[in-house]
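**Reference record**
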Amino acid sequence: MSNHGGVSTLTKRFVLFAFFATFVVLAATARAQIPAPGMIALTGARVIDGTGAAPIEQATVVVTNGRITAIGSSSTVTPPAGATVINVAGKTIIPGLINSHAHIDPDISVNPGPYRDEMVRRLKTYAIYGVTSIMTLGFETYDEPEGFYLRDTQRLGIGPVATDAPRLYAAGRPILFRPGPTGTETADDARIDVQRHVPLRADFIKLHLAGVPTDLKPDVVAAAIDESHKHNMSTAVHIVYLKDAKTAIAGGVDVIAHSVRDMDIDAATIAEMKRRNVALIPTLVRDRSVFIYENLPDFFKDPFFLRGMQAYKHEVDVLSDPATQQRYRTNAGIQASKPQLAQGIKNLKPLIDAGITIAMGSDSGSIPDRNLGRWVGYNEHAELEMLVQAGMTPMQALVSATSTAARVMKIDGAGSLQTGKWADLVVLNANPLTDIKNTRQIDSVYIGGRKVNMAGVAGTN
């Protein structure tokens, strides 16, 4: 055995193995970016804690080393000695928004790779819009390695998204989607592909049913879900059609990742969702994004939208082209999304009334070379507005985007403003309970008690 300089090859290998093992363990267990050291106290604001409880007026929120250590009315909670006091009188504090159905795919039509910088930019754009945690429900084959790298390094408190970016949770590539199934896959194929996600420590498993003959068969869907549950991974399914929702529900799926958009959802399906505690992510804004660019949308001039232009510019340029708009007006597939959206909205109200668990998600950032205009950050606020238009109260919409999203996606330590939770919060200049569009009146964003650099991506605001 060689021994150069007193350090054996075996020893070197052991050190490298120990380092790698430590990296994997820490990445699997940590859920935090770099928290802000020290103590701050935000005083004087209205607090909506994300649980559905009545707001706390004239509140004080104390944050120590990134976590909430006290919260309540100013008559019961006072800033501790040594705390940096931040006066936010007249403002409203809500939990940071959680996007239960997000993506950070690069635009491969203009970016041949490497992809990391663009994916980082998309993550940081989410943050300046007050989105402080996201679940990426599926990578593509080409960006999966970078996605898990960003997630794992973030959890170690290192790398480009250790600050000023949302907490990143990730499903891998959808099961047997390479890029799509052939219809010949077996239950064993599904179990093997789920097992591929185990060493990646995927936070969720995504399946895809498109209502076509090449879809995964019901026994394959059930096998993928069963194998996921054996490894303590929850499952979500892409659907359009009621028949596919029924297949996934019967197979034991945990989350329906889009609205049913082909027909009225029947009482039996709603009852089965309730019995099995199946959650829904409506993604209404996703369907609007398919056809809205047949004309130049007014929000292209909205200062709130424009703060994301560093990430949005290429797509805005393409969508502003009259030729693109004409193509949208004449493409039958694009126009089909109009009745699909109307059906999805119609189906949401009976689900709300039945008490089905509904988590906010937008499907933002998904394959932008093909799906233009799914704006990371901005579309989460559009989704909140559409949820209210579909029948939710502003409070219900906020809960769906905070504590419910955290529960459905198994995001620990976030989603509500309570003692012991991470100080992931958004300070607003207006009350979203009087108008849900007031979530866009962002004064500042904090992740782990650390104030997000709002100019780091946007260059403005």
Notes: Residues 1-30 form one domain. Residues 1-30 have pLDDT under 50 and may be disordered. The CA atoms of residues 26 and 156 lie 6 Å apart. The radius of gyration is 22 Å.
